[in-house]
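Example with several molecule types.
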Amino acid sequence: MVKVTVWNENRHEQKNPVVKEIYPQGIHGAIAGFLGDKGLDVKTATLDEPEHGLSDEVLSNTDVLVWWGHLAHHEVADEIVDKVHQRVLDGMGLIILHSGHFSKIFKKLMGTSCDLKWREADDKERIWVVDPSHPIVDGLGETIELEKEEMYGEHFDIPAPDQLVFVSWFEGGEVFRSGCTYQRGNGRIFYFRPGHETYPTYYHPDIQKVITNAVKWAQPVKRNRPVYGNAKPLEAISVK
Amino acid sequence: MVKVTVWNENRHEQKNPVVKEIYPQGIHGAIAGFLGDKGLDVKTATLDEPEHGLSDEVLSNTDVLVWWGHLAHHEVADEIVDKVHQRVLDGMGLIILHSGHFSKIFKKLMGTSCDLKWREADDKERIWVVDPSHPIVDGLGETIELEKEEMYGEHFDIPAPDQLVFVSWFEGGEVFRSGCTYQRGNGRIFYFRPGHETYPTYYHPDIQKVITNAVKWAQPVKRNRPVYGNAKPLEAISVK
Amino acid sequence: MVKVTVWNENRHEQKNPVVKEIYPQGIHGAIAGFLGDKGLDVKTATLDEPEHGLSDEVLSNTDVLVWWGHLAHHEVADEIVDKVHQRVLDGMGLIILHSGHFSKIFKKLMGTSCDLKWREADDKERIWVVDPSHPIVDGLGETIELEKEEMYGEHFDIPAPDQLVFVSWFEGGEVFRSGCTYQRGNGRIFYFRPGHETYPTYYHPDIQKVITNAVKWAQPVKRNRPVYGNAKPLEAISVK
Amino acid sequence: MVKVTVWNENRHEQKNPVVKEIYPQGIHGAIAGFLGDKGLDVKTATLDEPEHGLSDEVLSNTDVLVWWGHLAHHEVADEIVDKVHQRVLDGMGLIILHSGHFSKIFKKLMGTSCDLKWREADDKERIWVVDPSHPIVDGLGETIELEKEEMYGEHFDIPAPDQLVFVSWFEGGEVFRSGCTYQRGNGRIFYFRPGHETYPTYYHPDIQKVITNAVKWAQPVKRNRPVYGNAKPLEAISVK
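Resulting structure tokens for the full complex:
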């Protein structure tokens, strides 16, 4: 069974009654809830726990880490970011949600600024499937419509995705590469755009399907990490 | 359960006692055998059956089609090729093995000549994993070694693979992109190089693992194919 | 100097006075005009000429072929399509415009249906640059706005582009991968969406910049095509 | 004219008489020499200069930076690495040679460990062109042969290249993705494997062709960097 840890900075929920009302158990609680309902083995972790809830033991027992952060990216300790980074290279799956585009871990894995355009103006968002063969779109229709969401617009300063799965249309005139896969080391990464804290986006059945599919897609292969460093020849080398 | 059809032209086995001895049930029989042992629902089909064993009923009941051909690519009817092509675009997975690089169906899906260098000279082949995060390499070590195989060498005239999984080293001095994934329409395709008919390659446990992993990876998503053609607007268009 | 041939089926211009008025020299004439102004060596060819204006001599003297077709894709002779296909694999650049998505040559090179959603309803189109590092966007701003255009919408049934350069936003609610590069054999291909015959799109300075940049980007490398077929070993093969 | 800065840590040349003899003007001198001969505007910079020779003025006057480092990656100041990183995202081209795979700047841009297998044993290396359509292979044959080189072997822990141009065969039994392009922000990056300091690799005419082609390919587009941050709507947003 896939072991999932849902990480959330869990700050908006403490400060903003609107967010608290939408997500009384926190965004992590909502996400852990529907993933658990699908039969996955789910735990949560939050910023204010010791080691942000991401001790070596937690990380080594996590197949796929789901990440939501926004206000407090800078409070995530570099030492923890380095450990998460190493775990991804070792094979752990990583699902980065929404404002996690600016998290230290995503920027470290991408190597770019991960910057974008944004607007909080109740834009309608329509997410189009552009790769109908991808396991992450299993069970979806052609689009996912969100009546109101924060807008994220291009240019999104990321490496060209290994696979581009979704593109969003926004009412205010922008587009966005909303679903992007990356393979880094032995790990698989999925960035998924929707999920501003003041909207009930994570209760949308199709959003839940995407995140569930992504978690399953991102689970590690079972094999040893490659060997690096000095290597003896496998074949004879001629004396020249 | 994944429904697999293993297709083979099954001609070398009839003509060449060496091949017959290695594969008494045909190459299709050997492949169907190990896939069945892994619990997949496997059938076979061969060139000389009516409709090459690929009737509409067979195709519509196939999740993943495995393809081995060589001598008789030109004998495969264009009408059947067109049906297989359509089924791939509709979502059926397709695993093309070895000399299938020159099959009508692979060339039609790739849009290039699919040509390459080759040599039958008992080269040693060492297949290196270059994407350790891919589901197709689950359970493998760093390399697969084949004591003797036909050589296939670059330039291999294919589109750049969506994902490059394996690269082969050959004793005679060549390299080859040996494991390549493509997504076309709703279907997933995997090309895998090894498997010349005069060697017992399909009995090698790692080769069996790769083909089994590939079949699982290539199974279709469950959703409707996208709608094409004339489309009503989803939002009001201003009169200009 | 880059030798460009601009090919047009040139039928709308004969039948539809609206099109004739916008493009009195034909769409090919308009495109050849601005490419010539940029100092390129430009010729034109049209469907109703012998061999569609694409004789062996013309093709072998073409570095980059620009293609516009719509009504009469089926009238393009398969023999000519095969020759163009071979020339692309041999290194000729190919720029496919707008409704050329359904041309025989594009479908043959892509291996997919190349189908899409469409609507003639005066949608506003806003083309966003999603790859700001690409030579094809040299000199452009963040977007190209077209007040009225035909809508093309996802899903666009193409292979994932080697490089995705542009994504379009449409007023009626759709998005589209509008600028896509592909490398096939020795040739480079660029698909560019805009250019419905009833709008003066090819007079837009930014559209002209894109096509000019694309032609320069697509010019062939100067080298021999790779050698295929039976190959002698480059290193000694041990006797086993 | 393309303005190139060739950066070298220039330490082996001071310590090892073998290297000093092969490259009496330093590796940077050799590379600057042949690039200058091709008519490019070339300067050099080295680790032990103030700011490693990479002042703001130098960087802002560099279109393409060529990088060779090995022993002293850790001595490159993080502040300078951050400036080079920013310049790449702003559009500067970057050519990373050989042991530069482990430089801070390459690891920061890639987001992975960039680790690999290696061996100093006079392996023969044969570099195969796998993308014959790429501008970087202009003027080359099918392979580049180097009688003796350091071996670098897979797995090379990099993101899947945007374009894979070369794959190396090594006498001792390994393969390596030797020529890899990446587009990051507004900048283009090329990693090219050969060039161990104890071999005269940078005098090989084909190696010089590749580096010259890469410099030309990597020159920046002329346009403003995209605008990021809060964005006003371009279209009216309905009140809901």
